[in-house]
Design goal:
- Chain B: It is found in: Cell inner membrane; Cell membrane.
- Chain B: Part of the ABC transporter complex UgpBAEC involved in sn-glycerol-3-phosphate (G3P) import. Probably responsible for the translocation of the substrate across the membrane.
- Chain B: The complex is composed of two ATP-binding proteins (UgpC), two transmembrane proteins (UgpA and UgpE) and a solute-binding protein (UgpB).
- The complex is a heterodimer of chains A (about 280) and B (about 300).
- Chain A is mostly helical and about 280 residues long.
- In chain A, about 70% of the residues lie in helices and about 0% in strands.
- Chain A has helices at about 5-35, 40, 55-60, 75-105, 110-120, 130-140, 145-150, 155-170, 170-180, 185-195, 200-215, 215-220, 230-240, 250-270, 270-280.
- The longest helix of chain A is centred in the first third of the chain and has 32 residues, at about 75-105.
- Chain B has a single domain (about 40-290), classed as MetI-like (MetI-like fold, Orthogonal Bundle), CATH 1.10.3720.
- In chain B, strands 1-2 form a two-stranded antiparallel ribbon.
- In chain B, helix 3 (about 65-100) runs parallel beside helix 7 (about 155-185), helix 10 packs antiparallel against helix 13 and helix 12 (about 250-260) packs antiparallel against helix 13 (about 265-295).
- The relative contact order of chain B is 0.13.
- In chain B, strand 1 and strand 2 (about 50-55) form a beta hairpin.
- Chain B is built from 13 helices and 2 strands, in the order αββαααααααααααα.
- Classes of the chains: A mainly alpha (about 280), B mainly alpha (about 300).
- Chains A and B meet through helix 1, helix 4, helix 5, helix 6 and helix 9 of A and helix 1, helix 3, helix 4, helix 5 and helix 6 of B.
Chain lengths: ~280, ~300
């Protein structure tokens, strides 16, 4: 009886559509700008329909060598970002599933101390320890390396906590049965635990991939050479309002290229994404 | 929790081996730099880096007495409160509406969640494209309406711009949590109120909103943490803390003092203060989580 209110539902649809327009407009506007010529962009207001320079601009940015940021092509920047995002996502999942496995399925001296040591890192985001971390990276010679971009961001308490929580729900009978059948810890991990964790791994992968792709402060500190830069940092370097030579149409193309991969991951893996988000609770 | 002793494997060394990678990374990249930050925060280095001396809490005293620091504290509070309120209010409105419609739920959700995938720095740039005075179409419209819009020169307008970008990006996250929260409210409660004659608005404020309180509170903490730390990219890409120091948040100031101005002791003291803030926020968050476990 509450649901049967057509006027209310109509208003709901209208508000949702307005919401979607607000949410989508900045991205749509940038897409439109990416299909215009430089002159059209510099002469506002911009038309609200895509222009006719889609292929021209996109091929110029990707292959033409025009949209180069300090001598580096967009393809290289995208590749760096992909390596970083995949490295962080896969690395984080691997090390945290192993440590959660150790904490839940073994009893050993110092177990809880180790758990707390990992847990407390929740309270130490990069932002609060910028300078000393940077010094360590310089001392270890990790500036301008993929290792430097990936390794320090791999340790995370959230992923470990998520796996730990999930492992605790696995009935002890399963472990017992495995042990009776003569399966060692490695067999149990590979044949029982991993298959059971599939959904959790997928959910975590989506969240972590986006986390890695959208990093800003860390790659800003870790990279000096342009060819090791990520797409977001590269884009930041392209933007200059003071500089009359800024090729805005190519900036817009780069912008679209930078946000497309993570958006595709979110939309295509939506089910796992929503699950991962609501379950990790950040 | 009936925690009967878990069945475990008897190995002695294997668990240490399994923990080793995470512990190594945590020790090198978390504990070592964090302890360095604390150590440096009580030292004073001369400008040439030749000698250092122990100064106790002097750095903290200076930082907390510095009008620039108090300014950035104020900027951070205004920025965080505005961002969290706008992002949460819009998300709640959209979630309530999405809960009402029957058709198209999935499509609406898909179309509302993608800003989550946009990097904060890029979110800032998107808004800058729209609103920068030299070529932004919306800036052009605002100006032709006779309003003197220039976020590159006017501090308040710069703040409006970064709050918009930061809130815009966070709507999707809040939306998903509010939708989940709304789904967990028993429909029978709302129907009972409807039978008693409570109108839609009244039902929302007396039943739905109070029952959403745990979600709202959780999101408030998450949004504050987001506004404090994850928005560095927006500020760095859009305003650079300017004009003047109108958009210099605490995190931006740590970066600026440490990397641009190279004042190590002050930067370290600021880091330690930030650490204390994070610890406080995390503690609040976990108290909430605990309560949720107990009451359902």
């Amino acid at each position: 009886m509450i649901q049967n209110n057509p006027v209310g539902r109509l208003i709901a649809h209208v508000i949702l559509i307005i919401g979607i327009l607000i949410v989508a407009f900045p991205i749509y506007y940038t897409f439109v700008a990416s299909t215009q010529t430089l002159q059209e962009i510099l002469r506002p207001p911009l038309s609200l329909l895509p222009g006719g320079h889609f292929w021209e601009n996109y091929s110029a940015a990707l292959f033409g060598g025009v949209g180069r940021i300090g001598g580096v092509g967009v393809d290289r920047l995208l590749f760096n970002t992909l390596v970083m995002a995949l490295g962080i996502a896969i690395g984080k999942i691997c090390i945290s599933i192993l440590s959660a496995y150790a904490i839940v399925f073994f009893r050993f001296p110092g177990r809880m101390i180790f758990f707390w040591l990992i847990f407390i890192t929740l309270m130490l985001p990069v932002e609060v320890r910028i300078l000393p971390t940077y010094k360590i990276m310089v001392d270890l010679g990790l500036i301008d390396t993929y290792t430097g971009l990936i390794l320090p961001l791999m340790a995370s308490a959230t992923a470990t906590l998520l796996f730990r929580q999930f492992f605790m729900t696995i009935p002890g009978e399963l472990v017992e049965a495995a042990r009776v059948d003569g399966a060692g810890p490695w067999r149990f991990f590979k044949d029982i635990l991993l298959p059971l964790s599939k959904t959790n791994i997928a959910a975590l992968f989506v969240i972590l991939f986006i986390y890695g792709w959208t990093q800003y402060l860390w790659p800003l500190l870790m990279t000096n050479r342009n060819e090791m830069s990520t797409i977001v940092i590269g884009l930041r370097k392209m933007i200059s309002f003071a500089d009359a030579d800024t090729e805005w149409h190519l900036v817009m193309v780069t912008c679209i290229l930078a946000i497309l991969p993570p958006i595709l991951v979110v939309v295509l893996m939506q089910r796992w994404f929503v699950r991962g988000l609501v379950e990790t609770e950040k | 929790m009936a925690s009967s002793t878990r069945v475990t494997f008897p190995n002695k060394f294997l668990p240490y081996l399994l923990l080793a990678p995470q512990l190594a990374i945590t020790a090198i990249f978390f504990y070592w730099p964090a302890s360095q930050a604390i150590y440096q925060s009580v030292l004073r280095e001369d400008p040439f880096g030749l000698s250092t001396q122990f100064v106790g809490l002097d750095n903290f005293r200076r930082v907390l007495g510095d009008p620039n620091y108090l300014n950035s504290l104020q900027v951070t509070v205004i920025f965080s409160v505005a961002t969290a309120l706008i992002a949460m209010a819009l998300a709640l409105l959209l979630a309530v509406m999405a809960d009402k419609v029957i058709r198209g739920k999935g499509i609406y959700r898909t179309l509302l969640i993608w800003p989550y995938a946009v990097a904060p720095a890029i979110a800032g740039m998107l808004w800058l494209f729209l609103f920068n005075p030299s070529m932004g179409t919306l800036a052009h419209l605002v100006r032709s309406a006779g309003y003197n819009w220039d976020p590159l020169l006017n501090g308040d307008q710069a703040m409006v711009l970064i709050v918009s970008a930061a809130a815009w990006k966070q709507i999707s996250y809040n939306f998903l949590f509010f939708v989940a929260g709304l789904q967990s409210i028993p429909k029978s409660l709302i129907e009972a109120a409807a039978i008693d004659g409570a109108g839609e608005t009244k039902r929302f404020w007396t039943i739905v909103f109070p029952l959403l309180a745990p979600t709202t509170f959780f999101l408030l903490v998450v949004n504050t943490v987001y506004a404090f730390f994850d928005t560095f990219g927006i500020i760095h890409a859009v305003t650079g803390g300017g004009p003047g120091k109108a958009t210099e948040t605490l995190v931006y100031k740590v970066y600026n003092d440490g990397f641009v101005n190279l004042i190590l002791g002050d930067s370290a003291a600021q880091s330690v203060i930030l650490m204390i803030i994070v610890i406080g926020l995390t503690a609040i968050q976990f108290r909430y989580v605990e309560r949720k476990v107990h009451y359902g």
